Amino acid sequence: MTYKWNYQPPTQAELQERDRLVAELGLSPAISLLLVQRGLTTREAIKKFFKPSLNDLENPFLMPDMDKAVERLNQALGEKEKILIYGDYDVDGTTAVSLVYKYLRPYTSSLDYYIPDRYDEGSGVSFRGVDYAAEHGVTLIISLDCGIKAHDKVAYAKEKGIDFIVCDHHMPDETLPDAVAVLDAKREDSKYPYEHLSGCGVGFKFMQAFAINNGFPLAELEKLLELVAMSIASDIVPITGENRVLAYYGLRQINSNPSIGMKSIIDVCGLSGKEITISDIVFKIGPRLNASGRMMNGKEAVELMLAKDSATARKKSESINQYNDERRELDKKITEEASHLIAEQSKQEKDQKAIVVYNPTWHKGVIGIVASRLTEKYYRPVAVITKSSEFLTGSARSVVGFDIYAAIENCRDLLENFGGHTYAVGFSLKEENLEAFKKKFQQTVAAQLGTKDLTPQIDIDAILDFKEISPKFLRDLKEMGPFGPENQKPIFCTRAVKDYGTSKLVGRELEHIKLEIIDSLSDSSPIIHAIAFGMSRYNEHIKQMKPFDICYTVEENTYNKNTVVQLQVKDIRIHK
């Protein structure tokens, strides 16, 4: 894939601010410039950024209905009512259920949880779930990561004498469900200072309010921040503001004192002895937990997080790992089938700014992953659709800068249901509406994208000389984490690097290059290790000792307890 490199040289004012921070705070020049570019220019702002504090968490009672939610929960606990914790089957939903269940477990024996079946019930609150609650004598359902659009299910529960507390972070409709309380910072009437919480994050805020109201110390709740960090990483919400604090302390918990279930999944992922990062959750831990809900039932992910002994946790982890292996085979097969369908499309179809592919036999559990892979491959908004029960089910993914939720919402007259975020949406529709949806979706995307160039882009934060990658630079860079949406890991560029003479092809098909390179423009360049995945096409040029430019992130690679700096190359540009 050909990338467009974007680099905006620093202004004179930014360079002056950089130099001031270097002098005042003793930070490395490159890191100081990054902070300036991210709007962090005061000692207080930088201290708060580098050293997040739990004291900076927002007051949970600023969220609409929080007082009502706490009052109803207190009543249920006081009267020993049966409470059902209900959450979706993805990582955000299962971590949210695990957190609330774990925290409330010491206060009541009348507690149960429920994860809907992806295939029989679909996402969110289901009628079957409400029936389960009624059959088991439940009088209060706490829904997590779902429920904001479940008007009919909440009303159905009310008919059966069951109250609802909805904890969600998705966009609400103009009217809210008729629940006892609806906790969602995205409510139009919300004055809560931070609206980008994950579903698990909203559950945490509810439990925080409950603890404050009852005068309970927060230490036990804070031990569960590992679950919030998991949800923040896996649900790809911004790692800014309150989420940054929650992710920071959640990662610290994971690395210092993980729960039995968390330690077990870390072991199965081959991450033991390594410092766990947001990236490890996104690419290794999260997909395994998600595989439980994709291939079987998300309840197993909750059972893992609630495990009280190592043997149970190990058994659950290995089972979930097996699901993940099956999921990988399946999504590879379906991605190839979808790519073949796209290749066979007419020229008119190929010129569309959005891709829609449909096959009634595709596995519902992996179409979201397939949509992500196709978006990455073709750099277009993509909707992948399959058949599920009496409806078609779709999953849409987007490219940077395009709000696919708004595009899907524009087609709501053709849909049975939809929900999601800016870059990822799930939806369902009747089969007879498929062609009309496809046409309207593609027209909507074309109108909103206009003449925008659909070439993938790499935004370069700074030009770096290899000799600037010092131990101090690495320490300061690490302090900028955790990285994620809206606090992305910085991408650097070094120009005119060349092979030290020891670079080589690696990988099963020799598709990657393991580089040992030097900065040819420097008289005293260190030898830098780097990995360029899938870039073997550049090997011949590199082995001829010709200069080339690279853009990359700086990583620390731990092997046999030894940590070395390794650049992860995003793209190579050869000198002609």
Protein model, in words:
The protein has 576 residues and is α/β, with parallel strands linked by helices. It has helices at residues 12-25, 29-37, 43-50, 66-78, 91-104, 127-135, 151-159, 199-214, 219-222, 225-234, 241-256, 260-268, 278-295, 299-305, 310-343, 347-350, 367-378, 404-409, 434-449, 471-479, 539-543, and strands at residues 4-7, 82-87, 111-114, 138-144, 163-167, 181-183, 355-358, 382-388, 391-397, 417-420, 424-429, 457-460, 462-463, 492-499, 504-506, 512-519, 528-532, 548-559, 562-574. It has a 5-stranded parallel β-sheet with strand order 3-2-4-5-6, sandwiched between helices. The chain has a 5-stranded mixed β-sheet with strand order 7-8-9-11-10, sandwiched between helices. The protein has a 5-stranded mixed beta barrel with strand order 14-16-17-19-18. A hairpin with a 3-residue loop joins strand 10 and strand 11. Helix 10 crosses helix 11 (241-256) and helix 14 runs antiparallel to helix 15. It is globular, with a radius of gyration of 25 Å. The protein starts with a strand and ends with a strand. The mean pLDDT is 93.
